Amino acid sequence: MNLLQLEYFMTLARLGSFRKTAEYFFVSQPMVSKQISLLEKELGIPLFNRGYRTVALTPAGKIMFDALGRSRDIFDDAVYRAKLSSQPDIIELCLGFPECSDFANLSNILSSFQQEHSDVALKVRVSPISQLLLDYPDSKYDMVINHERNLRNKCELEVRPLAKRKHVAVISRHHPRYRAQDTAFEDLKDESVYVPAPEGTTLTKDYLAYICAHHGFICHDVIPLPNLESVLLAVKMCFGIAVLDDLINLPPDFELDTVPTNVSFEVLLAWHKENRNPAIPLLSDMVLEQLNLPSTY
Question: Which regions in the chain score pLDDT beneath 50?
């Protein structure tokens, strides 16, 4: 067992695809498959159920994924502290990235940034979107990618719009109201709507009411759950629907689909005005240049 195998394991579990995992690491798909197989052979347990186009964690794989996820931040911090101690001139930059999201080709841009700026220790921390806050100087992030609604103290922040996206309803393909491409958001007006409940989450009850009002109805049954995983599980069981954003990467084994709404939102790259980290303009300029976006707002 080695760190590369564990990185392949964590990324494959998150993306649910050997192809996407190989693209993420810029290696061949057989290379990822071989390393995962070696890891399973060494552990003596299957970690993934392999389908035709997707893979899903086995119960043993989920236990391992959860355990490794809890320890990952501790490991990352230890590695970067070690790097900083051996290279006193290195600049550390921490970017907060929303979990379960898939936005443009940012992973490729971040990889290019690390190659071009060897004096910058770039740490990408994947977190729930409600936790990607910039309360300088106490924030653990230098920069975050977040929705405009989630960012507090906006007058104290520098922001750059990256894209305009839409909210979507998430529904099980086995739900009686699901009709593949013919399902409209208005068709789901009588459904219970599940939302992640932590304070600061992207879809509060008031904002959900705003989305429904744009489609001419009132949402009467909003059910908060403690996290995104619980919300998606309730949708999988056909208890109702969820309203999230279209950046969501749905678990392939849950058999879920999305129904678009007509309400859009902006994805922002943000940092605090008081944060003088010299690596911030380097990263923001590269991201905006690669996405062909203006550097001023």
Answer: 199-200
pLDDT tens profile 20-38? 888 888 888 899 999 999 9
pLDDT at residue 240 in the model = 95
Residue 207, token pair as written in the block: 């904002």
Our count of domains for the chain comes to 3
Q: Is residue 296 included in any domain, yes or no?
A: no
Residue 86 lies in a domain: yes
CATH label of the domain that carries residue 258: 3.40.190.290
Report the sign of the C-alpha dihedral through residues 97, 101, 107, 109, in that order.
negative
- Which residue type, as a one-letter code, is found at position 52? Y
d(CA 153, CA 182): 41
Residue 296 has a pLDDT of: 62
* DSSP 8-state assignment for residue 92: E
Residue 87's domain spans which residues?
69-164+267-290
Asked if residues 113 and 286 have their Cβ atoms less than 8 Å apart, the reply is yes
Q: Return the SS3 of 280.
A: helix
> Phi-psi region for residue 222, left (φ > 0), alpha (ψ -120 to 50) or beta?
beta
Are 58 and 74 members of one domain? no
Structure confidence by residue, pLDDT tens digits, 171-186: 999 999 998 888 999 9
CA distance 237 to 280: 43
Contact 263, 214 (CB under 8 A): yes
